Amino acid sequence: NFSTAMYTTEAQKIIASHDKSEPLFLYLAFQAVHAGNGEDPLQVPQKYIDRFTHKIKDVKRRIFAGMVSALDDSVGLVVETLKESGMMDNTIIVFTTDNG
User: Fold this and answer.
1) DSSP at 60
2) What is the rounded distance in angstroms from the CA atom of residue 28 to the CA atom of residue 82?
3) What's the start-to-end Cα distance of the chain, in Å?
4) In angstroms, what is the C-alpha Rg of the chain?
5) What distance in Å separates the CA atoms of residue 23 and residue 38, rounded to the nearest whole number?
6) pLDDT tens, 71-83?
7) Dist. CA 94–CA 18, nearest whole Å
């Protein structure tokens, strides 16, 4: 259960089931890319880490790159869902961060 994927799935459901004749405000606050608990602060499904096995030697940097990649995939899925739902042409997407 990776929160980035869970949030994406829920956002896709909301977009797909939304009455297109009504406006939609969707605030999607991904937790990525943040460090987690003290014992194991960087977490992402292995398939994302594997994308960088031959490109990044440092394990922590590889995990971090996987976290960014997972977030990128999720944003792409939300955009694709907006397109499929016919909502993309009337959508504003704002990216912001709390990481300084």
Assistant:
1) H
2) 13
3) 28
4) 16
5) 41
6) 999 999 999 999 9
7) 20
| Confidence (pLDDT) at 11 | 97
Peptide bond into 59 cis (omega under 30): no
The Cβ of residue 49 has, within 10 Å, a number of other Cβ atoms equal to 21
Q: Cα–Cα–Cα angle for 37, 43, 48, nearest 5°? A: 170
Per-residue pLDDT tens for 1-42? 889 999 999 999 999 999 999 999 999 998 888 766 667 778
**The predicted structure's pLDDT at residue 37:** 63
What average pLDDT does this structure show over 81-86?
A: 97
Contact (Cβ atoms closer than 8 angstroms) between residue 49 and residue 66: yes
What is the token pair recorded at 89? 């042409």
How many beta carbons lie within 10 A of that of residue 4, not counting itself?
A: 21
Please give the pLDDT value at position 99: 64
Identity (one letter) of the amino acid at 10? E
CA 58 remoteness from chain centre = 23
